[in-house]
Amino acid sequence: xxxxxxxxxxxxxxxxxxxxxxxxxxxxxxxxxxxxxxxxxxxxxxxxxxxxxxxxxxxxxxxxxxxxxxxxxxxxxxxxxxxxxxxx
Length: 88
Description:
Blueprint: H1 2-24, H2 33-52, H3 56-86
Helix pairs in contact: 1-2, 2-3
């Protein structure tokens, strides 16, 4: 599990950096679903890595980060459903 935990952790870090880069270069909107998905994937990867290494403060932070990402994705989905319902 250690090698898998490392790979998942590095992938998570990559997703977070990619999300930040894409928003910083105006290629993604911070309120959009793509950004939120990248953040959720990144936090999930780092959460797995933190649990593997028993780094509980980092695990707690990434669990909270993932919860925020899930809530943001739910909000994006609600807004999209509302817009779709308003279309004739």
